[in-house]
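ENTRY TYPE: protein
CONTENTS: sequence, structure tokens:
***
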Amino acid sequence: MRVTTKPLNEYPWLLRPFFWSQKKKYGEVLQPGLLWARVPKLFATVAMLYGALDRKSSPLSPVLRSLVTVRVSQINWCHFCVDINSATLATRSGSMDKVENLEQWKDSDLFDDKERAVLEYTEAVTYSDQQVTDELVVRLKEFFDDDGVVELTGLIAFQNLSSKFNSALDVAPQGFCKIPQAPSGDVG
């Protein structure tokens, strides 16, 4: 990593229960949390935003949220995010099928019309050379009301923030998901 983390006992005591919870859930403390926590107010703000976006009452299903987070992570070359979010997607969808086919979602029959509209929107928001069109938003509104479109946009923006943060600081994967490697010569 390009910035070091501190020993757990050097973080403010108010943040330590969060790290203990991560260790219980994942078996270890997540490196991005330790980096964000170097600035406790920033950490708290990011954690609250993530909690609001990944809540049970979200208009976006857990699988849909995971599809978005993995796809944004792939686009932004965030190896840590692809690792942890792919593991979550596999758990939420019940298999590795969508994880393994997500980069080629346009050519796969695994994704339904709602997922395709969401993934197209995700790419339009994330890629700097693409635009969100009125026609795309009309298609999204076949599946979501205005609040749902706002929440989806917020999730995409949050994952762009998170994956760009982790990618810039070169946060390595922590081994949560064993993703098959592309054959040699392929560019992912």
About this structure: Residues 182-188 have pLDDT under 50 and may be disordered. Residues 58-168 form a domain with the AhpD-like fold (CATH 1.20.1290.10). The radius of gyration is 17 Å.
